[in-house]
Amino acid sequence: MLPSDYLKSISTPVVKTSNLVKISNSLIESFIKKNNLTTLKILFYISRSCDSVVKNGDLVNLRLNIKDLLSYTNIDINTFKRNLSVIQKTLITFVSTSEGDARYVENVSVIPYSKIEYGGFLELKLFTNIYNLIVDVKNKFTVIDLDNLMKLNSKHSCRMIQLLEYIEGFSSNIPKRKVYSLLEFNLMFDTNYKNFYELERKILIPVKSELDEFSSLTFLYSFNYDKVLKSSAGRPRAVSVVLDLKSNRTRQMKLF
Fold first, then answer.
1. pLDDT tens readout for residues 120-171
2. Which burial class, exposed, middle or buried, applies to 54 when counting CB atoms under 10 A from its CB (0-12, 13-18, 19+)?
3. Residue 182 CA neighbour count, 13 Å, CB half
4. Where in the chain is the domain with CATH 1.10.10.10?
5. Greatest CA separation found in the chain?
6. Cα–Cα distances in Å, from 111 out to 39, 90, 125, 250?
7. Quick check: 94 and 106 in contact, CB under 8 A?
8. Between 3.30.1180.10, 3.30.70.260, 1.10.10.10, 1.10.20.10, what CATH number should domain 155-247 receive?
9. Nearest-angstrom CA–CA distance, 163 and 217
């Protein structure tokens, strides 16, 4: 169990002020907050290759073709080596669910061991609990078009794809729409924007442009305004953003 899940299990909010929904699994959460898009691409490539693992006790061995990895992720060998080191320094925290005095906290390296062979192969060793999270990435996000995702330049675009997949999962009798306050949006994207103008300029506009070009799913957005609240320019202040799912029919969805 990860810390966010543990805190949810033991805490009860005094007042329910929002309907904030987690839209990505815990490993992706950790990577988006701590790393760049290159490390995310490497992680997705590993999840794509998890069928070829060999389990050895508490460790899982994985052997990857480096040439295929570089070609698929659109990165060069030096960038790959540099970001592989970043991944190896990334720790995921687990909180035990045992009762009584047996509770404890573990910090586990995402990739504790790697070896680059001159023959063009990469050998990785992962702990089983990390491997299970990576498999969870694959199971939950198989509908993401990885070929398109590898072309993205922003980790915010990666986060938005997950949000759009969540919205698409709504039943057919529910509008494919979500409304978020500024606080909720900042929490999901790990940002701290002070107003919707800044959020629109830094996230909504560039992310929409990328998804319109590369993703099978994109979105439309608008703002809800409070006529009483005024911005510094004297205009009504935006109080929430409305995201509407849009199918990008110029892109063809591919599965793993």
1. 999 999 988 888 777 765 555 444 556 666 777 788 887 888 788 778 877 7
2. exposed
3. 14
4. 3-141, 155-247
5. 67
6. 12, 8, 6, 37
7. yes
8. 1.10.10.10
9. 10
Do 95 and 2 contact (CB within 8 A), yes or no? yes
Q: Which residue has the tokens 């995402």?
A: 110
CA angle in degrees (0–180, nearest 5) for 125-130-135:
100
- What's the rounded Cα separation, in Å, for the pair 62 and 65? 10
Cβ-contact 90, 109 below 8 angstroms: yes
**Distance, C-alpha 81 to centroid of its chain:** 22
pTM listed for this prediction: 0.56
CATH annotation of 3-141: 1.10.10.10
Q: Degrees (nearest 5) of the Cα angle 37, 34, 181?
A: 90
Q: Enumerate long-range contacts of 65-72, CB under 8 Å, 24 or more apart.
A: 65/120, 65/121, 65/122, 66/116, 66/120, 66/121, 66/122, 67/120, 69/42, 69/45, 69/122, 72/45, 72/48, 72/150
